[in-house]
Amino acid sequence: MGGTTINAEGISYRELNEQVRAAASSGACEVTLVNVSGHRYIGAGLGAGPLITVHGVPGNDLGAFMNGAQVVVRGNAQDGVGNTMNAGRICVHGDAGDIIGYSMRGGKIFVRGSVGYRAGIHMKAYRDRQPTVVIGGSAADYLGEYMAGGVLVVLGLNAAGSSPVDEYVGTGMHGGTIYVRGELAPYQVGAALETSRLEARDWEGLSALLEEFARDVEWDAPRRLKREEFIKLAPTTARPYGTLYAY
To answer: Which of 14, 96, 213, 240 sits CB 3.0–4.6 Å from 134 for a disulfide?
Structure first.
């Protein structure tokens, strides 16, 4: 079956999502949503199916609990993109709000612009699933808070020489890896984290990921980025605050 276009103007988020699910169930290869304005839960819980293209600004929890679908946003997105996402791909061509990738367990989120607070909070790997978030711009405080697995990348393409992240990076982090393009002062980094320059194997994997990000967000300059521009953050312990608890 070919593509389907759904006009979101004047309908509730519930009705819009019912129409999206109906199109997916009917075998549509592509679903295009127009006039989206704060409609929540688009793509929530969907398995592998059509490519969903959103024109407008989707509301909170875009792709929540998603299990294999593909979503492209031709603009900005609000909070909670990819909340508890299991598999699939979300590509935002603009900016995104707070807590993107919250408790994400698999799949990929690519944001061409910047994001708000607590991106990647509670991200975790699950069996063979490795969640991945790439942010083209900058990220606000508490990036990767309590992160337990997966990969977070911040490129700072709009940072103009300043640090692309704010404070408390990796606070409570006990698994996974964060890559930041730019400098980090000690006060920006959470406890029990090790910062280092990238080894060859790190750069090999990151380079492939950047090529994929560039293709999806239609950015033509991934090869301009250099290995020496990046800092790697990784936890030194699985219990960074173990002495604070009684057990």
So the answer is: 213
